[in-house]
Amino acid sequence: MLYWTLVFLVLALVAGVFGFGGIASAAAGIAKILFVVFLVLFLAGLLFNAFGRRGP
After folding, report:
1. CA 14 centroid distance within chain
2. For residues 19 and 56, is the Cβ–Cβ distance under 8 A?
């Protein structure tokens, strides 16, 4: 998921350089949403891993 966030970020930067403002803002918005989803899933994974372990 972080890979797709970086792909949309690069797409937004390239589109912004060439003057495609609408495409750049859309790609940046998608990158922001994917990054937030990635962070939530990453933190949830850390919490489940930390509290889900049981000793032998």
Report:
1. 18
2. no
Rounded CA-CA distance 51/36 in Å is 22
Q: DSSP string of the chain?
A: -HHHHHHHHHHHHHHHHTT-HHHHHHHHHHHHHHHHHHHHHHHHHHHHHHHH----
Position 7, amino acid: V
pTM over 0.85: no
Given this model, what pLDDT does residue 56 score? 62
- Rounded to whole angstroms, what are the CA distances from 28 to 2, 4, 15, 31, 38? 14, 12, 10, 5, 15
Contact 8, 28 (CB under 8 A): yes
